[in-house]
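I am still getting used to backbone structure tokens and would like to learn alongside you. To get us started, please write out a protein record for me. Start from the sequence, derive the backbone structure tokens from it, and show both lines together. Once you have written the record down, we can walk along the chain together:
***
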Amino acid sequence: MTKDITYRRIYEESSPEDGKRVLVDRVWPRGMRKADAHLDEWLRDVAPSTELRRWYGHEPSRFDEFRRRYLTELREPARRQAADHLRDIANHDKVTLLTATHDVDHSQAAVLTDWLTGAGRSRA
């Protein structure tokens, strides 16, 4: 069975087709009211570390290295539990991963989608 996982910006209108809506950012999105987010879960522990996020700076030229470092972080005990929980959600429900990042195709949500579906170049 193919997992039904998508990703997009949290600022976009929610939809019944989203399935479970999971925020995968470490910090709450600027200007977003919690009541307007329509979240099922906020998994801040699955987000990249502050250090990795700052190093990456959303520079597309650093994305491949960001992906590699982030997948390594997902194996760390501090993130493993959250990553396993996200995998469990994805195994049972349709999931939309949400992020505040402008360039969602170069974000942790994109990396997580590939990781969860097995489409990524490497797996955690």
